[in-house]
Amino acid sequence: MKLLHCADLHIDSPLLGLARYEGAPVERMRSATRRAVERLVDLAVAENVDVVLVGGDVFDGPWRDVGTGLWWNGQLSRLVDEGIRVFVVHGNHDADSVISRRIRPPDGVHVFGSDGPSTEVLDDLPLAVHGQSYATAATHDDLAAGYPDPVPGLVNVGLLHTSLDGREGHAPYAPCRPGALAARGYDLWALGHVHGREHHQDGPTHLLFPGNTQGRHARETGAKGVSLITTDDTSVRSIHHVEVDAVRWCRVPVDCTEASGVDDVEDRVVDAVIDAWREAGRPAAVRVELVGRPGRGGVGDPSSLRTQLVADLAHRSDGDIWLEKVQDRTQSDVSALSSEAVAAVVGAIERLEVDEHTLADLAELLRPLQGATAGARARRSVADGAPPLASVATVTDHLPAVREQLLSRLEGRV
Ligand SMILES: [Mn+2]
Asked: Into how many domains does the chain fold?
């Protein structure tokens, strides 16, 4: 058998964050969730799969209008017209309490109910699918604990929307332990909810999150897609991932070390972003992070830099690159300062940061101050549990401020 497993389609996700960026291709990004679903249907047909498994969050939330539901039914019809059977569970984003109206899916599509777990067995395929949908978004029960026993002699698949034992950035819904899933005796847990791909194997059991089909914001970077699974009559043989995303979110770090000025920074960004876009092989939404230690000219103001880059990149990519944001994470560059004396002072401070002996000596030098001018403050600090003034910890804490103040004075800024 050939199975296609997808989850977290989030059809018509509004991509709310986009609206605040001038010039954002809002319609293009919004339609990306639909383009990704079309690609997964194309793939299912081209690969001649027997079954499509949908692990929840088909919809992003309540429909803006009935068009969202009609469109999804159209995609389901494309599958069943090709003789492909479809199994669906709903997750937190499309729980019964969230989607107030449903459109009956075409014959050949089975949507698991939310009353309790159930099992579907097909006449003509050696397959049993077990599943349960969410009644409400905030489902805190361990749904997997109630899933039925495997059907002997068949490939058993558990279709479930779950955070497993907890995943950062994902609400802890239908929590369960991976070990408990493996102990259930199924061949495959086709999971949804976690938007990053994960594949674990525990004995003969595979635990699989295909991830979402289309990244929705700058934190959902990288390739997004679905999993193709082949089985023999009793077990999983192979799993591989196929990209279906229509637009890719990329974070591109750009090293600005020793950049000679704003023009140089621009050139470096354009080169790095064009490379990332080519690697993605599709339209890209890009967040640039300027890193390293630029030369004396600095990197300029990120927002005016962005404006220039938006124009350059759109021109170079026929509008296929959209620059979401430019973040300045550079450090001021010591080595580029003209005065060797300045570099020497700063170098000394940097060495000091890792030189406990000298730090201890410095703390010792401060000790008379502790007893005199800073006496009251030092006593308060000790009472608060803070380190005393004349300590290695206090000296270390103050080094960055000392460095900044020395630099300001030496560069004539104050
Ligand atoms: Mn989701």
From this structure: 3
